[in-house]
Specification:
Blueprint: H1 3-13, H2 18-39, H3 43-46, H4 56-68, H5 73-92, H6 111-129, H7 134-154
């Protein structure tokens, strides 16, 4: 089964623009490559059975790995949109009873992100006032930033 070809036809039938089709296919390929690296299961050989491991937990782990790779939040959100559409496609084919990708939220660029930026800025000022060396400041800020992103993802 040529899963990308069938997904592409589905996207076209749903009225997606050519650019959206191109981006979603690329994002889904990235997800399947990541999944193969994590599990050793390739969609090319698994076919529709690949959706047995297309779970909320798997998608959240993928989201976390993208965050760890410092992928911009807007790019991660686009990947999640592509996975939601992939889940819709799988449901339309009867391969899934529900779409687990709808249970994974996008990053919200709301007041919580602004609050996180203020926390980081104030923490940096505090560390500088305490005369911490620049490398320590960089590492502390990175750790706190990851923690704040983790909290946001758990909402």
């Amino acid at each position: 089964m040529d899963l990308p070809k069938h997904f592409k036809l589905y996207l076209i039938s749903q009225g997606c623009s050519p650019l959206t089709v191109k981006n979603y296919l690329s994002d889904v390929k990235d997800f399947f490559d990541w999944l193969a690296q994590k599990t050793g299961i390739h969609y090319q050989t698994a076919g529709q059975a690949i959706f047995g491991i297309f779970t909320k937990e798997t998608i959240r782990e993928y989201q976390q790995d993208l965050m760890s790779a410092k992928t911009p939040h807007s790019t991660i959100n686009r990947h999640l949109s592509a996975l939601r559409k992939l889940g819709e496609f799988a449901r339309s084919q009867g391969w899934l009873s529900e779409n687990p990708a709808t249970k994974v939220k996008n990053f919200n660029f709301s007041s919580s992100q602004i609050t996180s930026q203020k926390i980081l800025k104030n923490f940096k000022k505090y560390l500088e006032k305490e005369k911490k060396n620049p490398l320590t400041i960089k590492n502390y800020l990175s750790d706190v930033r990851h923690f704040l992103e983790w909290i946001e993802m758990k909402k």
